[in-house]
Specification:
By secondary structure, the protein is mainly α. The chain contains nine helices and two strands, in the order H-H-E-E-H-H-H-H-H-H-H. Keywords: Membrane, Transmembrane, Transmembrane helix.
Length: 248
């Protein structure tokens, strides 16, 4: 890790407009957090076994939306390029961001059930917000398939088999709107993917992401404390071990 990249990462964690505190309320991308909250219980695990969710992790390693492991891995690799692991802490995969997005797509966030989804469907201005006739679940499913198609067209390999630089090239093409998608622009899909990645990294672990609250630790965010009565009058900087909703 070069000093330049280290500074860039630190600057991102400190100054990103999507602060950990704002994410808890789910104000971003249609109130993503809270649309589907995996509860305690049993679920089919990634390797076909069953397990019980714990308060610490918030949910077992189970997929609820992506039934195809290849597609789930494409999503995971794309989020890791957006939020990579480095010397400051884990990346999207280490924070369980792909599972967070998977859970949200399986719920009301993915179905847009709390939003007006009738026509007419014109091409809206950037300030007009969500304009597609497609649900987020449909957009993500198509977007993942397009990521795979672009990798096959450019490199004759699966997106999961190309290197990081090649993944970045494809994701940049999506960000610039250069990839043709149906019912939505690739730039809009990328904006959803990036926003959901950040929200999964910083939301409460009870929603499936931010494993072990490591996203909060990188921010120095204390999470959900019962009270600050023992620290509030101390003039010194307080480094507080974070708490999640599941620990109360």
């Amino acid at each position: 890790m070069s000093p330049e990249k280290d500074i860039s990462r630190r600057d991102f964690l400190k100054t990103t407009g999507i602060a950990a505190g704002t994410l808890v309320g789910g104000g971003l991308i249609g109130g993503l957090v809270g649309y589907n909250m995996p509860g305690k219980g049993t679920a089919t695990l990634e390797h076909g076994q069953h397990g019980t969710a714990t308060e610490e992790t918030g949910s077992p390693k189970a997929k609820m939306f992506f039934m195809n492991q290849r597609d789930f891995n494409i999503l995971a690799n794309a989020t890791e390029r957006i939020f990579p692991e480095d010397d400051l802490g884990p990346g999207a995969k280490g924070l369980d961001v792909p599972y967070f997005i998977d859970y949200q797509l399986a719920g009301q966030y993915g179905s847009n059930s709390k939003e007006y989804m009738h026509g007419p469907f014109g091409e809206g201005a950037p300030t007009q917000g969500y304009q597609s006739r497609l649900t987020r679940a449909e957009i993500f499913k198509q977007g993942v398939q397009k990521l795979e198609a672009e990798a096959q067209n450019r490199y004759k390999k699966s997106f999961n088999d190309i290197d990081g630089t090649q993944m970045d090239e494809i994701l940049t093409a999506f960000q610039k709107g250069e990839v043709q998608m149906s019912g939505v622009t690739s730039a809009f899909f990328f904006s959803l993917l990036r926003a959901a990645t950040l929200e999964g990294a910083y939301s409460d672990p009870i929603y499936g992401g931010n494993r072990n609250m490591d996203g909060w630790r990188m921010k120095g965010f204390p999470g959900h404390q019962m009270a600050y009565i023992t620290q509030i009058e101390d003039p010194k900087f307080q480094k507080i071990e974070p708490n999640s909703l599941g620990s109360h």
